[in-house]
Specification:
heterodimer; A: mainly alpha; about 75% helix; globular; B: alpha+beta; 3 domains; 6-stranded antiparallel beta barrel; about 30% strand
Chain lengths: ~160, ~280
């Protein structure tokens, strides 16, 4: 029961942090994707099962709150969470460079998945998703990932 | 000891189920049942958006209070000096003049709108959809309905920001003018040329004009809402033409429009409600 409460609190904190940073601390709209970082961290530290569930639930919450295509973030983050979770125990997760590279690749994959989903399911031209924000976000996510991972690890410990 | 094959097979089954749910949501395109489910989940998640906004507002207000206290102390010293010099009446006069100007502007603005103007704050925004959506803190309780105009102030005049797309109990989702799903009939301010404005998801808009020999579209021209729009009253500024693309083959002329509102810094909005939808507060 306590575990569920902790998970629920973590869930709301991650969503709130994402909203605060994206709404109030995003110069020109450029902000890290906190939800994506949280999913990757949970996946690499707890495994594919935790990763995909975190991806599914957090993605669903983003879809409910802010997305125009219901299910797009849910699907993309579930795939990212599962894939990143497969790396658990297979790499040196203490290296900042490794973390940055993984987050960059996952962010890029996330963007690619969204573009594919829009190309298949939406009336919006998928190429319109590419702008300065979406292109800079993987770099920004990668740059701050060592700090976020370190912080999350401290909280978990 | 658990069998390793069970440990590895279960996540894949779960993954397939979760992905199926995701694809089902994608393919359903918000059918009535899915929309009801989405609305229910929004109410469950709304506290996180509201609390995020509350935390930021509290921090901002606390910071401003500290600043105000410091400023008040400094002001106090200055005012004491002024009182000493018998200039109290001059300060009062100046304050009254400023207030008068502000009230005149406000009165002028309201009469220009002609609808019920409801001010709303931006509650949440996502960098994934930075040029697509914002959520504002007024909803059904305040009399907001879908498909009403949302404006913001730029250079002391109301300009087009978007329209209300979805309404919840205490908040509303606004589709921004730069969203590719957004379009609005418009015209040039200084020439009677109709155009269709569409969002480009990059901070700019495209304006499609029918090609005509007589009138010229040039950079710097202001684009305003036209009478053809069912959502926006006529005459609100949308933006300024920043470049014109000439193409000989097509029957339309496409121009790039820079929105009048700086979409990176928008925090206050005005929702234009029809007169019968007057706010309950």
């Amino acid at each position: 029961m306590i575990k569920i409460i902790i998970y629920a609190i973590t869930f709301f904190v991650v969503v709130s942090m994402h909203l605060i940073i994206n709404t109030y601390l995003a110069p020109f709209g450029i902000a890290p994707n906190i939800v994506l970082l949280a999913v990757i961290f949970l996946a690499v530290s707890k495994g594919p099962r935790a990763g995909m569930w975190a991806g599914f639930l957090l993605g669903l919450s983003l879809d409910v709150l802010l997305s125009d295509m219901f299910g797009s973030r849910t699907t993309a983050l579930t795939i990212i969470g599962y894939s990143a979770g497969l790396l658990r125990g297979e790499w040196d997760d203490s290296s900042g460079l490794n973390q940055a590279v993984l987050v960059f690749l996952c962010s890029f994959a996330y963007l690619t998945l969204l573009i594919i989903e829009y190309a298949i399911f939406s009336t919006i031209q998928a190429s319109l998703l590419l702008n300065h924000i979406s292109l800079l976000q993987p770099v920004l996510n990668a740059l701050i990932s060592p700090a976020i991972f370190w912080l999350c690890k401290k909280i978990i410990d | 000891m658990r069998n390793p094959s069970t440990i590895h097979s279960n996540p894949i089954k779960t993954l397939i189920v979760l992905l199926l749910i995701g694809f089902l949501l994608l393919a359903s395109h918000l059918t009535e049942k899915i929309a009801v489910m989405k609305k229910f989940m929004f109410y469950m998640l709304a506290p996180s958006a509201t609390s995020a906004s509350a935390v930021v507002n509290f921090s901002t207000k606390s910071f401003e209070s500290v600043k105000a206290i410091v400023a008040a102390r400094q002001e106090n010293i200055i005012l004491k000096e002024l009182v000493k010099k018998h200039l109290g009446s001059w300060i009062e006069l100046d304050q009254l003049r400023q207030e008068n100007t502000r009230l005149r502007e406000l009165a002028g603005f309201k009469s220009q709108l002609g609808n019920v103007a409801l001010s709303a704050q931006v509650l949440s925004r996502d960098s994934d959809g930075w040029f697509q959506w914002i959520t504002v803190n007024k909803g059904v309780k305040d009399g907001v309905v879908t498909d009403v105009a949302v404006l913001a102030i730029a250079n002391a005049q109301p300009c087009v920001l978007g329209r209300v797309y979805e309404v919840f109990e205490n908040s509303s989702k606004v589709i921004l003018i730069t969203n590719p799903l957004f379009s609005v009939p418009a015209k040039l301010k200084n020439a009677n040329r109709d155009a269709l404005i569409e969002g480009l998801n990059n901070g700019f808009l495209s304006a499609r004009f029918l090609k005509e020999e007589s009138a010229v579209v040039s950079c710097g021209d202001d684009v305003i809402t036209s009478a053809l729009s069912s959502v926006f009253p006529q005459g609100f500024k949308i933006g300024t033409i920043s470049s014109v693309q000439e193409s000989s083959g097509e029957s339309t002329l496409v121009a790039l429009v820079k929105p009048a509102i700086n979409l990176n810094t928008v925090s206050e909005t005005i929702i234009l409600l029809p007169k019968e939808n007057k706010s309950k507060d």
